[in-house]
Write a structure and sequence with these properties.
Layout lengths: L9 H13 L2 H18 L5 H27 L7 H26 L5 H22 L3 H22 L2 H92 L5 H32 L7 E4 H19 L2 E4 L5 E4 L1 H17 L5 E9 L2 E8 L33 H12 L3 E6 L3 E9 L23 E5 L3 H13 L3 E5 L2 H10 L4 E5 L8 H12 L5 E5 L4 H9 L4 E3 L4 H12 L4 H10 L14
Parallel strand pairs: 2-4, 8-9, 8-10, 10-11, 11-12
Antiparallel strand pairs: 1-3, 4-5, 5-7, 6-7
Helix pairs in contact: 1-4, 1-7, 2-3, 3-4, 4-5, 4-6, 5-6, 5-7, 6-7, 7-8, 7-12, 8-11, 8-15, 9-10, 10-11, 13-14
């Protein structure tokens, strides 16, 4: 017989016990009814008293076992008590088996042959049903079967009839068969319980790992948010003086200077341009993160865009001694030309930057309903392990020293973000040491392109005849704006607050308002323009200028509906902005025109080595 103390671990044994105890309740009513039925059938004058005593004992034992099982199931079974409870169940079921076996002592020899057969059949059935209910804890059934068999066989042996002896041998074989089946059932129960525990452990491990992953994700999100806030704050603070510097340099360029002074001015303007381009790159990235890039989908031919990019960037390739080629294409696509131009400009600039020998090729390849705009280079190539990393912000290959001439590491991140905003695919194939190819998938247009898709805003030869009210809390910016606007023929009033702007406007009604977005006391330029329009008419032309790159600020500024320029604003860009609002260009067209103007963040940038 298997020793219950050598069963599985305590946790498994507890579950085996609970499974066995759960089977007790279902056998109570059938056992009681069967006992009463046997009394009614087998009772006679010779065995009436013994049979009734037997019936009462069976019913009492069954009720006690059911009550004990219910009590244990209602409580928490501690692992350290499991083995003691196994012994308890062995004892209780041994008593139950002895009670059922006593049926043979109360009836055999005092009933008919048919009655004797019925008794043996009932006891065999009790053993069989007990196997299925007690098998989860195998030792309990082993004891039950052994006790019932011993009690029955001893009575058969005492009767001294060879037929009864044969029944005893048959009972022994039957119980042995049941023991084999019970062993298999017990193993299956233990395996099911072990599998359940493994599943619970896997679920718990998954829960812990999920919590850790979520915690790590929260930390990463917080770090990313902190980085974005830092970039926004740093970008805003840097844009203010650089914006003012650009205004003063434009005013200085209109003065009479000597040749050496013009050379110094050219160097100063080149330095200003490089700083502005880096800040524009940060702005592009911030606009993508803010979700304020709104594609203006239209049909346009690719060739004018390819020509434009070649005119801008081929001189950089020539300066490095590498070849720049672009293949002619008649294809017409549907997308946002300004955003496609920015993606292509970043890809080509990146190719030129990392190519020292050979060249760069820009070409188109038809693929079903789309065309692949491809940028090939014979540069350093990219390891397969780096194919995902190069699209991360601030990630650069071969620039551990952070040489500013190699950019900020945002070009490919911006290209991928814009491609995602447009719903286009941007893919990469590369062989280290041989070069790379970036492919942008563009949908082929089903209709001819409209004229003037890539139109350029007029030059700033025009002199304005308008009174402009400038609102900015930075004194240097106000001075620079006043000088530049006066040079363009404007009468200019400047204010550092909304209240001062209202006072000046009442004295000299403006024909145009130019306001910084972020003003003192947490007030905004959008608020200033709204108040002035309430007083001087909703048609009062206005421009917003901001140095903010924080996503929330960008969304708020765009929601105001006022055309928005981003510091540092070049004189070219400011002139285009004035033309747009003074000529009452529709708002969407104004945004598109401003984004297409030279010097903006989404067009004609990176004319130097950027």
């Amino acid at each position: 017989m298997t020793d219950p103390l050598r069963l599985a671990d305590g946790r498994t044994l507890v579950e085996q016990l609970r499974l066995q105890l759960g089977n007790v309740g279902s056998s109570v009513v059938p056992s009681i009814l069967l006992a009463l039925l046997l009394v009614g059938i087998l009772s006679n004058d010779a065995n009436q008293l013994a049979l009734r005593a037997w019936c009462g004992a069976v019913i009492l034992i069954k009720l006690y076992c059911a009550r004990d099982a219910r009590r244990l199931l209602a409580s928490v079974i501690a692992q350290e008590r499991a083995r003691a409870l196994v012994w308890r169940q062995i004892v209780l079921n041994a008593v139950d088996a002895a009670a059922w076996g006593a049926l043979a002592w109360a009836t055999l020899g005092t009933t008919t042959v048919a009655g004797s057969i019925l008794v043996v059949a009932v006891l065999a059935g009790i053993a069989g049903s007990s196997m299925s209910s007690l098998a989860p804890v195998l030792p309990v059934f082993v004891v039950f079967g052994a006790v019932e068999l011993i009690v029955l066989a001893s009575k058969l042996w005492l009767l001294g009839d060879r037929a009864y002896n044969a029944l005893g041998v048959a009972g022994l074989l039957y119980v042995a068969t049941l023991l084999g089946q019970a062993r298999n059932s017990s193993r299956a129960a233990r395996a099911a319980i072990a599998l359940r525990f493994e599943n619970l452990e896997l679920i718990e491990r998954l829960r812990v790992e999920t919590e850790h992953a979520q915690a790590a994700h929260r930390v990463a999100d917080e770090a990313n948010l902190a980085k974005s806030r830092f970039l926004a704050a740093a970008s805003h603070d840097l844009r203010q003086p650089i914006h003012a510097q650009g205004l003063f340099l434009e005013v200085l360029a209109r003065s009479k200077l000597s040749a050496s002074q013009y050379d110094a001015l050219a160097n100063a303007r080149a330095t200003w341009q490089a700083s502005a381009e880096m800040l524009d790159t940060l702005l592009d990235f911030s606009r993508i993160e803010a979700g304020v890039v709104e594609p203006q989908m239209q049909t346009f031919p690719l060739q004018p865009l390819l020509n434009k990019i070649e005119n801008e960037l081929a001189p950089q390739a020539d300066a490095k001694g590498i070849v720049y080629r672009s293949r002619e294409t008649p294809v017409v696509v549907r997308s946002d030309p300004a955003l496609v131009a920015l993606i292509l400009r970043n890809l080509v600039s990146n190719a030129i930057r990392y190519t020292e020998q050979g060249g760069v090729l820009v070409a188109c390849r038809a693929r079903g309903s789309e065309v692949l705009l491809e940028v090939w280079d014979t540069g350093i190539g990219i390891e397969p392990t780096q194919h995902q990393d190069i699209f991360r912000e601030f990630h650069q290959l071969g620039n551990a020293e952070r040489d500013r001439r190699k950019g900020l590491g945002l070009g490919l991140a911006i290209a991928q973000g814009l491609a995602r905003a447009l719903g286009h695919t941007l893919s990469l194939a590369s062989t280290p040491g041989r070069g790379s190819v970036f492919r942008l998938g563009l949908p082929v247009a089903q209709q001819a392109a409209a004229d003037g898709t890539l139109g350029i805003a007029p030059s700033h030869a025009r002199v304005f005849d308008v009174r402009v009210l400038v609102i900015d809390d930075d004194e240097t910016v106000r001075a620079g704006m006043r000088q530049l606007l006066n040079a363009w023929g404007c009468e200019c009033d400047v204010a550092d607050s909304i209240e001062e702007a209202q006072t000046l406007a009442r004295a000299h009604p403006p024909g145009l308002v130019i306001s910084d977005y972020r003003l003192r006391e947490l007030r905004t330029g959008a608020e200033a323009i709204a108040l002035l329009r309430e007083e001087f008419g909703a048609e009062l032309p206005a421009l917003l200028i901001t140095g903010d790159t924080a996503p929330q600020r960008l969304r708020e500024a765009r929601a105001s509906g006022v055309p928005l320029l981003h510091k540092p604003v070049s004189p070219n860009q400011l002139h285009h902005g004035l033309l747009c609002v003074l000529n009452a260009v529709e708002m969407d067209s104004a945004f598109a025109l401003l984004d297409a103007a030279p010097g903006t963040a989404l067009a004609e940038r990176r004319r130097a080595n950027g």
